[in-house]
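Whiteboard transcription, Tuesday session. T.W. wrote the structure tokens on the left side:
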């Protein structure tokens, strides 16, 4: 008996088909729930140097 993805079936589909459908569904849900993020890496100086850029980057653009 082989254990390759073509011989394993889940919900009537091959394992590859089932996985791809489930992955696409999860990625769509993740994209819908995504929040904006901002990361800053400061190697020298103070946060005051980056403050203006941070404020501009963290505000929403006008519609």
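and on the right, the sequence the group agreed on:
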């Amino acid at each position: 008996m082989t254990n390759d993805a073509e011989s394993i079936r889940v919900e009537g589909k091959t394992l590859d088909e089932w996985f791809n459908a489930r992955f696409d569904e999860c990625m769509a849900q993740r994209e819908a729930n995504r929040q904006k993020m901002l990361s800053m890496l400061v190697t020298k100086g103070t946060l005051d140097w980056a403050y203006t850029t941070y404020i501009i980057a963290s505000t929403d653009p006008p519609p």
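Someone added at the bottom: The chain has one domain: 9-58.
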